[in-house]
Amino acid sequence: MPTYNKLVRDLIPEMIQNNGKTANFRILNEDEYIVELNKKMHEELSEYETATTTMNIAEELSDLLELIHAAADYYGLSAADIEKIRSEKAKSRGSFERRIFLMDVEDH
């Protein structure tokens, strides 16, 4: 029997049961949830970094986006709140479109 011990999407226990298997799970408390949410973000980021096809990359980015939404919700923020801050930072500091790699800065 495989052991997972990780945060999963809400419908996973039901999907396991529909496949004729039994899943043992529990609901995390607030402190456990944010720790596991952060672990899951690292897991999905790692999977994104090793993805090799456009479809795999899209799937991993969507997983990361889902986790960002979950983290925002945990902290009482909406996706619109996050998007507003992202947009403001893009206007004031730029985005990453131009692929600029800063090597060093000299004092004058």
List keywords for this structure.
single chain, mainly alpha, 4 helices, elongated, 108 residues
What do you see in this structure?
It is a single chain. By secondary structure, this protein is mostly helical. Helix content is 59%, strand content 0%. It has four helices and no strands. It has helices at residues 12-18, 30-50, 54-74, 79-93.
Give a summary of the structure in a few sentences.
The chain has helices spanning 12-18, 30-50, 54-74, 79-93.
Structural class, please? mainly alpha
Can you give the mean pLDDT?
96
Largest sheet: none
Secondary structure: number of strands: 0
Count of individual helical segments:
4
Helix fraction by DSSP (H/I, runs of at least 4): 55-70%
**Rounded to an integer, what's the Rg over CA atoms?**
19 Å
Alpha carbon gap, first and last residue: 64 Å
Helix-strand string: HHHH
* Unreliable spans: none
User: Which percent range describes the beta-strand content?
Assistant: under 5%
What characteristic shape results from the CA principal axes?
A: elongated
